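User: Please predict the structure of the protein below. I'd like the answer in structure-token form so I can feed it into my own downstream comparison script.

Assistant: Understood. Taking the following sequence of 79 residues as input:
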Amino acid sequence: MFDEGTAKPCREPTPSGLIVDAEASRMGCLRDAMVNELRRRTLRTEDERNIRLEVLVGHGIRCEGRIRDEALLTELNAA
């Protein structure tokens, strides 16, 4: 019915769309760097701990759809 290899994509990305894709990818890299920095830091106050947990949980859900890090789950339960 259809010839293999002749199908064209439904949409071709526009130059603006390519810029948006690149910026979204760049933002993902910045989020990853921020999360890695938060994991590395020593926390001084309970507020810092709460903000750290909020960011790590949000990042885990955004990236994995759930929290897979057992240490983070343990830390959440202890909080």
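That's the full token string. The chain has a mean pLDDT of 86.
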